[in-house]
User: Fold these one by one.
Assistant:
Number 1:
Amino acid sequence: GAGVSQSPRYKVAKRGQDVALRCDPISGHVSLFWYQQALGQGPEFLTYFQNEAQLDKSGLPSDRFFAERPEGSVSTLKIQRTQQEDSAVYLCASSLGGSHTEAFFGQGTRLTVV
Amino acid sequence: AQRVTQPEKLLSVFKGAPVELKCNYSYSGSPELFWYVQYSRQRLQLLLRHISRESIKGFTADLNKGETSFHLKKPFAQEEDSAMYYCALHSNFGNEKLTFGTGTRLTIIP
């Protein structure tokens, strides 16, 4: 596809369940980002990959959150033992890399933990 | 730490009237500032960035380092401008992450 693709679009999880969110970046984009957007807030940075290397995971809120990008393309954000405060829209973005480059966003995955 | 503040959560403007969406930032270095827009049922997309000093869809934004502001302006609002607008900051220390404000929902009244 032409843009960043995320799946699933919607996910309802019972508290304590593990979830996996997928991001397909634009082909050839070196940089990949995950953001968390709570209701009424702006996106907040979670983690950043350059190719397969996770260069910054300072935004991950706890050790229940884990992200990977093993082949430098598709990325998965995994949340273990989900809690209600994890309910949010999870956004993936990709860019060619380097400063001054535009980040292209996916449509997001809306996670609701019940 | 870097921070972006958008003081207005909601802003309503009549069609044809001027629009100004406020954005202030705090950052110790020399930042790169962006405005992102999200139209109804669409994904977040870049509207403009300060470094290119261009006008997109009639919008402009000037970086004022003295006031640490990057307000978004348009002289004559159009109905299709109704959307959610986010101001974002990118540091220049090799960390590519964006720091976003909380956003302003702009509604243009016909």
Number 2:
Amino acid sequence: AQSVTQPDIHITVSEGASLELRCNYSYGATPYLFWYVQSPGQGLQLLLKYFSGDTLVQGIKGFEAEFKRSQSSFNLRKPSVHWSDAAEYFCAVVPYSGAGSYQLTFGKGTKLSVIP
Amino acid sequence: DTGVSQDPRHKITKRGQNVTFRCDPISEHNRLYWYRQTLGQGPEFLTYFQNEAQLEKSRLLSDRFSAERPKGSFSTLEIQRTEQGDSAMYLCASSLGGSNEKLFFGSGTQLSVL
């Protein structure tokens, strides 16, 4: 079965600093990969996704992620963090697409705090 | 596009009581998902509907849990004889399906079982 590891439970960065959130997955083939953000009291919002092709994926709100097959990683990055980015971030994988369902497997999340 | 709506936002119940949650997906979305999220964890898949048909169920979904989507629009999730371990955030998501699947999540129903 596939699994997702987010090694950092909580990260604190200063506003304007760069950010990298780590995600490692375990799956026999290349899965579809996602990053979601969850603010308090809000639902999950999709930041970006990787299905195939270019391994550097651009998302919303200035986020990007890079798929590295050799490292089974899909790390999320942002060059300059804004205070409004404080939230919880979830990496997720799904092993199948197309006609079937999206049974997303989520990591445990990384909580991001931003210091003004 | 009014988003995925879930009701209620919060539910407090006593152990042994039955509870029912409702999810209204984005109109024309034929796929609907239920996930459960406990404190400090990511969401876990519970079940999936394609229109009114419940096509997949997780082993997490014990026989005390039942979900319906009678007309292929809104869905309900019922938990019978609630237990303290059922305390969690229950999330609903909907999508159009297809090769470029994108799930839209609701804000969830927070269940507390006392």
Number 3:
Amino acid sequence: QVQLQESGPGLVKPSETLSLTCSVSGGSISSYYWSWIRQPPGKRLEWMGYFHYSGSTKYNPSLKSRITISVDTSRNQVSLRLTSVTAADTAVYFCARGTTTVVTPFHPWGQGTLVTVSS
Amino acid sequence: QSALTQPRSVSGSPGQSVTISCTGTSSDVGANNYVSWYQQHPGKAPKFILNDVSKRPSGVPDRFSGSKSGNTASLTISGLQAEDEADYYCCSYAGSYTWVFGGGTKLTVL
């Protein structure tokens, strides 16, 4: 059974870069779509973007050029990088797997990791 | 990319049925059948409960069903149980290889 685990700093200063890792166990990263989804405290889910093993990526236009999603197949990890963060980027960040052919459904999900942007 | 519109809250008594709507546009919900639904209990990660408008994965009770008409998708939960109390989110393909979630609906079991 595939399991996902997010990890990374829980506190990031404004204007700095947020970097998170999603470690995948019980299955391979190969062939699947991998997404990052975030949820500000008390607010809705927001799809941030995906990476497909073929190398294709797509990001939420609202994040413009601040976001990068990549994978490290040797470590079976999916990474998220978000630059120039502000308080509005404070959220629980989830990684989730799609299928081999479509981004959704998002399943399974990691348990999420809270990132607070504050000086 | 605007969030899909869901009612902020719905409620029902045990054994009753409730329906949660998810309204988008002809560019997202109305344009495809890539609508999925997620259940989220407080402090937990979302759980996938429906895909492609109405397909249930194994392990999800058949009390959960989905449909779509025009730009609005719907999730119906019949035979409400206490453990159904949670937040529910719809998600749709929004074109240009992007995806959008709804605003979320809090279900209260009275």
Number 4:
Amino acid sequence: GQQVMQIPQYQHVQEGEDFTTYCNSSTTLSNIQWYKQRPGGHPVFLIQLVKSGEVKKQKRLTFQFGEAKKNSSLHITATQTTDVGTYFCAGTISSGSARQLTFGSGTQLTVLP
Amino acid sequence: GAVVSQHPSRVICKSGTSVKIECRSLDFQATTMFWYRQFPKKSLMLMATSNEGSKATYEQGVEKDKFLINHASLTLSTLTVTSAHPEDSSFYICSARVWSGAVGNQPQHFGDGTRLSIL
């Protein structure tokens, strides 16, 4: 079954409000990546977190990786209409010699002007 | 940046037809490419991992005889949906990874996807 869960599934916010999506894994992750998929487009890589407790920022976006490396979050401050899209987390689960990237279910963000 | 080209972008064909989808890494070599299927408003479901010069690795539940994958060169992987039926209608998307040998997975670069509609 799916090992990387993401909530919420949908989020509607007024432009200017903040937004957060959460990602949880049942197993420890080697790293976690975040992607954004605009409507009708393909996923585009945003960032990768590797270290326990790591926090990275990209302008209004803040990414966190939990201390246990089982959860992560993406926070957008003061959303804009250009932030519309589906945000996916993707965790690397190491199994023996295999390293598999597992995508979360995604959070679809709608920003109302 | 790394660019992945996927062709065709849209296919509409009759039931029973076989459809080939191409995935090319334009400015880098990709020893590994990935094929995903995405249902409307759903996540990406990994179908198979395509390895250059060897057999693809299929995920559980994916029929290897139904979804033929060929990765004959470092820049091209193809997915052929054989004898397609309406239930195969979906959005298929490929990705490739630039391998640098560094710790951790490298970002995946996605093609634009192929919208397959089987009548």
